[in-house]
């Protein structure tokens, strides 16, 4: 700690930081543009100038840039000094000389950092009366608008997009007063994190194109703290609603998880809420009238119909994309013994294995921020950029730890962003990627191993054995012993090694082998007296509540295949399927066979799909934004999301439908009771009580508004329907109100949805809610960890795996398209590709198939023709399959053979077109 | 390591052209001189410009691919420098010094004379593609101002008469088609 | 011994010395002796003692700069020497004389500098428009290679040096040493933050020394004739000689080597032959486009870093630009402002967005539309773009002629405003 004096007041600060960051940490207002908490300082904008004095005698002082000056002990500075304030007002004045001043039509207006800083720096009257420099804008694809004329050249966009997120298609072009930030030619921004430009850009150059389509001012959005439903990472979001439609999603700061950034699936996938494919009302047909159209029911009729059908021997099938509350309600409704996993069997057994690893002492499941701190990362099989993208962004940062270490040696402060990069050049901390194909992290990888899942298992076992001879060696030795040794050495040399994998291969053997490796490393570190011998090990989860459902299944319940066989044999009187498309979980054959029994089928879901088309009763379920719920992420962290708005019509949270005899008739149903019961029932879920109590405290005092204090049109918004002012919807169970009234949280982030502080209308107001910049939120609600490390110490698993029959294969995931709900958003669809197969050159040659030709994949009782992508970076003799929404993955799980299909010119042309916007990474990173 | 993601982006408008053997030969030589491939970006663009007259999008892509860097980054470099031409220029590029010593020595009148004779202003090319007139910062020949650099030759102590003579001699050497 | 160590071999009416002729004139002797008798630390001490100051503009003591290069056992092995031959400052044409007049002198200087800091690779960053210099340097480097003065184990000394010629593509900011390093690395030539200084983390993050052409050309003389001789060359407070140029309406514009401490009048009147007939001296920029105007009353000052500094300007590159009474000072300064505005790299706000405003105001003044408030805005920019306010020294450099012109030629500015036209264009 160091002491500095700012305008005569002493503060305790961290001398490792710069003055700007420390002033902001102290809650002082000091304007800035180019600096960013995650990207450090470059001193370009000059907006953060302060006066610095050499000592108490020095009365003249010098103007310095706060962001470029260390907060060293004894520093004496002044923010209010006349020379400094004059300089800052000049800076803002000249930043604005070519700015179009188009705030009234600018989508950033009202949440614009430039507006805030203009006010703060005291620029009121325009003196520059010459012609402004103007630019032509580019079409940057379905996500991002471009309005270069608003640019103030702070360089943040390229620093985020290229330096931080590893993008390669956005650049600073031109020079002097004509610098231009864009692509070298018009086209879609390809990086998976492009959406963050919307928040990183301090003005309206990069705005959210999906938001434009139904734009609303920030202050007119009704918002609540929510969770991203894109994957199992648990990123925190703020969805915004107006007039019953969800308008956008922005990042909500979470210290341990997403920090300041979201991936594009999370940001742009929300439009599924507004989809025409939403199940809008209860639909019913009698079980014996299959083929006839279903009849619409009112909500009450729907509920009664559910009660009527749900009697006798009931079974329930849960869902990894439904909340804990909804899964719990279903479980209660059908009884634990009749509750079945909504995940496929293989996925469930993997997730169950992960749960036991989450309890094993000496292994540590890193949160996303901790992943950034790792100095050596091994990724096993998971294409993390396409399955849990936010984690991939963290791994990219982790590779910079070598740079940080070098900078520390050279006494260059870490916030000196450009200097640290310059010093380190291409030095990176090891990132080792085992994968069947090239991945988007290969550009920062130190080592890659292309191998089938089987080969990776052998490789991982060999590394484990090399690290600890007690760990059983694989049955067969890998071909590349040298690589095994170097990977083992890198892991052993690390201070904080991390191993990252996931469920996409649905391979229990892979998980067990990976766990063995972590254990071997733990033993090694133990033996070598590491200060902290535990090893970071985590597994990305495919869906927002995969972990929650898996935990629930541990308390009892059956597998999906047993549920299907009960149905097939007609042993159940009715089945309730919760938020699930079973065609995505089991083979089409098995699902169809189960449905053939004509057991009355009740499905509660929010989007129409091929499976619920067969439901006899289909009930409309609320989406993430339309309900409050609890979700468990990959670390077993339970977090609560709040209802952003009340859906129209009959749509209800699934658990509301499920609570017997009490649906839709009043507010007496609420999720907390379900959680309480769950917490009481099982030790794993006991921490939920803490989550609950953290909320009830606030609710008891005064509610916090979901609407901003500038929310407009409230009395007129329904005037087209009737002229009476509508009563605000009530929300007795939540600490939030559906109105402007309530206690605006000014510094306390316990219920923060949209950060706002006086003079800070942009998202950068978040710093007022942090203990320190980029630190914990004040009273922030981080969720609770459900699992304690009190399991068995875990000895080496026996890894059993039978070599694959037939051709080796793997399944490809795409950020845009693989996840079911986001895939229904038009913007995501614009980036998605249909199903395809992927092979290497050798295989293509022996099959006689050309790029973009057609392949037929034949499984036992399933075959499909897919356009083929021939890639450079793919394991030998195997096929990758991207299922999209159309190919039934489970049907291809057994052995598969492939053959070339005679090509049809039309198919070829359309395949070429479809591949033209596929973003892959296919060349080996080149040294120097 | 450099980022060398091959991205099949939303149907790029232009395709990389093939670099000529001479171009790759010269670029390869430059590559031996620097420890990092991207360092050669500017040199490579100059090589291409020497052979092609300017740097088209097709050339830019070709160079980027050859060096394993993104076209966007390379264009950032190309557009930063004054003497990389991202648009076609005439066969003779007149780099006309308009800086302070030449200003004092009356370069504006010379420039007006050129403009009048050729019918082009700064940044323009004659209709026959013969000349492009560009202003250039101080050419470091201030004791012989006004000066101009054209076709690798420095022309010093310019007068209207010298300009006339120069234009005539170019006309004779490179008659217009 | 000579009192013109920089130009003794130069005669622009003939081709420069090739390596044979250069060696005949005792060229490279100093280097050979250095390899034999001197440790790098000896050379460093000598250069420090000589009092040599950088000739690139800032006048920083060269030996001191070199001494910041880490030379401990565990410091990085790779180090670089970079020659700043970007000469693009308006009115500056002194390095060109050395490059075209005696390329081997530069190579010899580079050998000395590289040996001192133990750099095995050196880059010459040459501005792209210096085509003749490029040709000559390439030839000279090849000759030096042939004679074993470059390459591996030079003259059995165990020291290796490769010299690589890099040609730029026209951008004044590349002369700023950290922007130059970015340009060499193939990046956009924005300057870098300092600290860390290039001596610690420079080219590709390695310790790097950037020196001006003329600075390095001083080294062979110092090594050959010694510190005392070198100090003796200067007539005033500064050691050695300096290339000094004069451009503008003088009878004999050109560039000469003069002892530091020579009166300016001698340069202007004896060397440059005085003002052309019909032209009176109104003022001059003593060291290139980014120095403050001095007035006729300053002619008797000596060419000395400190002396000129005390008079409110800088010796900088030593190339003086003469303003005569028939040239509009507003037009002249406006010309400079346009240059600086266009050559701003676009990185920091005051320079990127301040200079275009200044430039626009000058255009308006010249076209007769100027207003009194315009001068107020110009004046504000002096501080706004002043030293320490911008990311690098380009913008403060631009403010030097502007500020001094507003001080010395205020009546000319006012005349533009009052008469609604440029009095010189009537
Ligand atoms: C905008 C700007 C342009 C510069 N241009 C040159 C140049 O063309 N040549 C040069 O030697 N120094 C130039 N300098 C000075 C260099 O930054 C640096 O100080 C010099 O190369 C150091 O060499 P020296 O110590 O030998 O003088 C320039 C500085 C600035 C701020
Ligand atoms: S002062 Fe700023 S914008 Fe100007 S050249 Fe230097 S860094 Fe670039
Ligand atoms: S925030 Fe300090 S210079 Fe931009």
Helix/strand order of chain B, N-terminal first? HHHHEHHEEEEH
In CATH, what is the class of the largest domain in chain B? Mainly Alpha
What is the name of the CATH architecture of the largest domain in chain B? Answer: Orthogonal Bundle
Describe the largest sheet of chain C.
Answer: 4 strands, parallel
Q: Name the structural class of chain B.
A: alpha+beta
Remind me, CATH topology of the largest domain in chain C? Rossmann fold
Number of helices of chain B: 7
Poorly predicted parts of chain B: 1-11
CATH superfamily of the largest domain in chain C: NADH-ubiquinone oxidoreductase 51kDa subunit
| Strand ordering within the main sheet of chain B | 2-3-1-4-5
Domain module tally of chain B: 2
Assign an overall shape of chain C: globular
Question: Can you lay out the helices and strands and say which pair or pack?
Answer:
The complex is a heterotrimer of chains A (928), B (177) and C (426).
Chain A: E1 2-6, E2 9-13, H1 19-25, E3 49-53, E4 62-65, E5 76-78, H2 82-95, H3 113-121, E6 144-146, H4 156-164, E7 171-173, E8 180-182, H5 197-200, E9 206-208, H6 209-212, E10 222-223, E11 226-227, E12 236-242, E13 245-251, H7 264-268, E14 282-284, E15 295-297, H8 299-309, E16 314-317, H9 324-334, E17 339-340, H10 345-358, E18 363-364, H11 368-372, E19 376-380, H12 384-387, H13 389-398, H14 401-409, H15 417-424, E20 431-435, E21 447-450, H16 453-467, H17 481-493, E22 497-502, H18 508-527, E23 535-540, H19 546-554, H20 560-568, E24 574-578, H21 588-595, E25 601-605, E26 617-620, E27 629-632, E28 637-641, H22 654-658, H23 671-681, H24 688-701, E29 704-705, E30 736-737, E31 784-785, E32 808-812, H25 826-831, E33 836-840, H26 841-847, E34 854-859, E35 862-871, E36 878-882, E37 897-901, H27 905-915
Chain B: H1 21-31, H2 41-52, H3 57-67, H4 71-78, E1 92-97, H5 100-104, H6 107-118, E2 124-125, E3 131-136, E4 148-150, E5 153-155, H7 160-173
Parallel strand pairs in B: 1-3
Antiparallel strand pairs in B: 1-4, 2-3, 4-5
Helix pairs in contact in B: 1-2, 2-3
Chain C: H1 19-24, H2 29-37, H3 40-50, H4 62-67, E1 80-85, H5 94-101, H6 103-117, E2 121-126, H7 131-146, E3 162-167, H8 177-184, E4 208-212, H9 213-217, H10 219-233, E5 241-247, E6 254-259, H11 264-271, E7 281-285, H12 305-310, E8 319-324, H13 329-343, H14 349-367, H15 372-384, H16 394-408, H17 410-419
Parallel strand pairs in C: 1-2, 1-4, 2-3, 5-8
Antiparallel strand pairs in C: 5-6, 7-8
The structure holds flavin mononucleotide (FMN), iron/sulfur cluster and FE2/S2 (inorganic) cluster.
């Amino acid at each position: 700690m160091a002491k500095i004096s700012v305008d005569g007041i002493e503060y305790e600060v961290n001398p490792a930081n710069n003055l700007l960051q420390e002033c902001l940490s102290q809650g002082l207002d000091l304007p800035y543009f180019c600096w960013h908490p995650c990207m450090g300082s470059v001193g370009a904008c000059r907006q953060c100038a302060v006066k610095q004095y050499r000592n108490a005698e020095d009365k003249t002082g010098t103007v310095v840039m706060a962001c470029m000056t260390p907060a060293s002990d004894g520093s004496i500075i002044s923010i209010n000094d006349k020379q400094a304030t004059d300089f800052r007002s000049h800076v803002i004045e000249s930043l604005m000389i070519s700015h179009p001043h188009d705030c009234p039509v600018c989508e950033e207006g009202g949440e614009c950092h430039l507006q805030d800083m203009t006010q703060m720096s005291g620029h009121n009257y325009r003196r520059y009366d010459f012609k402004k420099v103007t630019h032509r804008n580019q079409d940057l694809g379905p996500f991002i608008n471009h309005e270069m004329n608003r640019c103030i050249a702070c360089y943040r966009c390229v620093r985020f997009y290229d330096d931080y997120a590893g993008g390669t298609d956005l650049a600073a072009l031109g020079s002097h007063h004509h610098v231009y930030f864009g692509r070298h030619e018009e086209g879609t921004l390809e990086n998976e994190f492009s959406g963050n430009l919307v928040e990183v850009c301090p003005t309206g150059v990069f705005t959210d194109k999906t938001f434009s389509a139904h734009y609303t001012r920030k202050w007119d959005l009704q918002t609540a703290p929510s969770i991203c439903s894109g994957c199992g990472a648990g990123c925190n979001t703020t969805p915004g609603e107006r007039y019953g439609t969800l308008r956008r999603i922005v990042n909500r700061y979470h210290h341990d998880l997403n920090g300041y950034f979201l991936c594009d699936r999370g940001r742009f996938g929300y439009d599924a809420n507004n989809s025409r494919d939403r199940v809008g009302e209860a639909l019913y047909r009698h079980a014996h009238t299959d083929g006839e159209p279903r009849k619409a029911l009112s909500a009450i009729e729907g509920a009664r119909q559910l009660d009527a059908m749900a009697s006798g021997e009931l079974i329930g099938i849960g869902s990894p994309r439904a909340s804990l509350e909804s899964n719990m309600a279903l479980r209660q409704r059908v009884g634990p013994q009749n509750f079945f996993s909504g995940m496929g069997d293989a996925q469930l057994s993997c997730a169950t294995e992960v749960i036991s690893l989450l309890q094993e002492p000496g292994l540590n499941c890193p949160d996303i921020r901790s992943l950034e701190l790792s100095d050596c990362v091994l990724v096993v099989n998971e294409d993390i950029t396409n399955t849990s993208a936010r984690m991939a962004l963290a791994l990219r940062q982790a590779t910079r730890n070598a740079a940080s270490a070098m900078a520390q040696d050279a006494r260059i402060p870490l916030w000196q962003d450009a200097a640290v990069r310059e010093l380190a050049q291409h030095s990176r901390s090891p990132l080792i990627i085992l994968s069947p194909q090239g991945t988007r992290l290969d550009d920062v990888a130190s080592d890659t191993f292309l191998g089938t899942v089987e080969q990776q298992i052998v490789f991982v076992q060999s590394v484990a054995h090399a690290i600890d001879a007690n760990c059983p060696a694989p049955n067969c030795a890998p071909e590349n012993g040298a690589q095994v040794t170097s990977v083992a050495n890198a892991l052993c040399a690390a201070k904080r090694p991390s191993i990252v994998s996931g469920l996409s291969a649905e391979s229990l053997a892979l998980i067990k082998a990976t766990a063995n490796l972590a254990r071997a490393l733990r033993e090694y570190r133990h033996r070598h007296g590491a200060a902290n011998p535990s090893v970071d090990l985590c597994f990305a989860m495919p869906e927002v509540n995969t972990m929650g459902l898996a935990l629930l299944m541990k308390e009892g319940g059956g597998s999906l295949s047993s549920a299907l066989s009960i149905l097939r044999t007609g042993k159940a009187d009715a089945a309730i399927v919760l938020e699930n498309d079973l065609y995505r979980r089991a083979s089409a054959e098995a699902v169809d066979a189960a449905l053939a029994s004509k057991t009355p089928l009740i499905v509660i879901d929010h989007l129409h799909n091929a499976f619920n088309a067969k439901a006899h009763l289909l009930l409309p379920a609320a989406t993430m934004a339309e309900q409050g719920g609890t979700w468990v992420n990959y670390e077993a962290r339970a977090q609560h999301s709040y209802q952003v708005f009340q859906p129209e019509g009959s749509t209800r949270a699934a658990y509301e439908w499920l609570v017997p005899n009490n649906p839709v008739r009043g507010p007496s149903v609420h999720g907390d009771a379900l959680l309480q019961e769950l917490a009481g029932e099982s030790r794993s879920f006991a921490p939920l009580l803490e989550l609950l109590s953290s909320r009830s405290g606030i609710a008891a005092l005064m509610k916090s508004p979901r609407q901003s204090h500038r929310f407009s049109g409230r009395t007129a918004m329904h005037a087209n329907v009737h002229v009476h002012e509508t009563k605000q919807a009530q929300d007795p169970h939540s600490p939030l109100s559906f109105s402007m009234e309530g206690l605006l949280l000014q510094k306390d982030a316990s219920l923060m949805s949209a950060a706002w502080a006086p003079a800070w209308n942009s998202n950068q107001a978040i710093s007022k809610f942090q203990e320190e910049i980029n630190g914990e939120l004040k009273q922030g609600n981080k969720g609770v960890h459900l699992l304690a490390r009190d399991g068995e110490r875990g000895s080496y698993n026996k890894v059993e795996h039978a070599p694959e029959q037939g051709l080796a294969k793997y399944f490809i995931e795409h950020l845009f398209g693989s996840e079911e709900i986001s895939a229904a958003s038009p913007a995501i669809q614009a980036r998605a590709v249909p199903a395809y197969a992927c092979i290497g050159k050798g295989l293509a040659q022996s099959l006689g198939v050309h790029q973009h030709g057609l392949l037929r994949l034949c499984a036992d009782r399933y075959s499909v023709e897919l356009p083929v992508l021939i890639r450079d970076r793919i394991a030998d003799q195997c096929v990758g399959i991207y299922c999209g929404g159309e190919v039934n993955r489970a049907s291809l799980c057994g052995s598969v053979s492939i053959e070339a299909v005679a090509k049809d010119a039309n198919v070829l042309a359309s395949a070429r077109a479809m591949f033209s916007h596929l973003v892959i990474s296919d060349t080996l990173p080149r040294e120097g | 390591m450099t980022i060398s993601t091959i991205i099949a982006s939303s149907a790029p408008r232009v395709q990389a052209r093939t670099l000529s053997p001479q171009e790759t030969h010269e670029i390869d030589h430059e590559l031996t001189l620097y420890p990092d491939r991207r360092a050669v970006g500017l040199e490579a663009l100059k090589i291409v410009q020497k052979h092609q007259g300017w740097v088209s999008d097709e050339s830019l892509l070709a160079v980027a691919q050859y060096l394993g860097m993104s076209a966007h980054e390379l264009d950032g470099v190309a557009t930063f420098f004054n003497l990389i031409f991202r648009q076609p220029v005439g066969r003779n590029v007149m780099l006309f010094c308009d800086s302070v010593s030449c200003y004092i020595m009356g370069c504006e009148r010379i420039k007006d004379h050129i403009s009048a004779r050729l019918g082009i202003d700064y940044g323009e090319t004659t209709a026959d593609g013969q000349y492009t007139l560009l202003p250039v910062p101080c050419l470091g020949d201030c004791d012989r101002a006004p000066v101009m650099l054209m076709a690798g030759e420095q022309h010093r102590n310019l007068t209207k008469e010298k300009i006339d003579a120069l234009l005539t001699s170019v006309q004779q050497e490179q008659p217009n088609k | 011994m000579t009192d013109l160590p920089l130009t003794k071999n130069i005669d622009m009416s003939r081709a420069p010395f090739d390596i044979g002729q250069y060696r005949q004139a005792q060229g490279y002797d100093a280097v050979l002796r250095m390899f034999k008798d001197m440790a790098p630390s000896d050379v460093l001490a000598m250069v420090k003692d000589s009092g040599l100051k950088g000739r690139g503009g800032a006048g920083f003591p060269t030996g001191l700069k070199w001494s910041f290069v880490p030379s401990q056992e565990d410091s990085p092995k790779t180090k670089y020497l970079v020659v700043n031959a970007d000469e693009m400052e308006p009115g500056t044409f002194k390095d060109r004389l050395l490059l075209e007049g005696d390329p081997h002198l530069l190579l010899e200087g580079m050998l000395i500098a590289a040996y001192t800091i133990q750099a095995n690779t050196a880059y010459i960053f040459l501005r792209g428009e210096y085509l003749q210099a490029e040709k000559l340097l390439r030839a000279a480097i090849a000759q030096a290679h042939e004679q074993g003065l470059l390459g591996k184990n030079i003259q059995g000394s165990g020291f290796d040096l490769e010299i690589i010629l890099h040609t730029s593509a026209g951008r004044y900011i590349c002369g700023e040493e950290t922007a130059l390093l970015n340009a060499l690395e193939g990046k956009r030539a924005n300057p870098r933050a300092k600290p860390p200084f290039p001596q610690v983390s420079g080219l590709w993050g390695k310790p790097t020394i950037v020196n001006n052409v003329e600075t390095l050309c001083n080294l062979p003389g110092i090594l050959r004739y010694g510190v005392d001789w070198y100090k003796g060359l200067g007539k005033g407070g500064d050691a050695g000689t300096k290339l000094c140029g004069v451009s503008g309406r003088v009878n004999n514009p050109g560039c000469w080597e003069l002892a530091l401490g020579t009166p300016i009048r001698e340069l202007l009147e004896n060397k440059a032959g005085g003002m052309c007939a019909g032209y009176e001296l109104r003022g001059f920029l003593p060291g290139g486009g980014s120095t403050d105007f001095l007035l006729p009353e300053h002619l008797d000052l000596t060419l000395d870093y400190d002396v000129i500094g005390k008079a409110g300007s800088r010796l900088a590159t030593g190339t003086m630009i003469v303003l005569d009474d028939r040239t509009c000072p507003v037009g002249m300064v406006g010309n400079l402002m346009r240059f600086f505005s266009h050559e701003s790299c676009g990185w920091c706000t005051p320079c990127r967005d301040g200079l275009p405003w200044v430039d626009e105001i000058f255009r308006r003044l010249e076209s007769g539309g100027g207003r009194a408030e315009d001068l107020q805005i110009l004046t504000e920019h002096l501080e706004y773009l002043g030293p320490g306010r911008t990311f690098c020294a380009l913008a403060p450099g631009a403010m030097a002629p502007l500020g001094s012109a507003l001080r010395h030629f205020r009546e000319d500015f006012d005349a533009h405003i009052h008469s609604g036209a440029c009095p010189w264009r009537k």
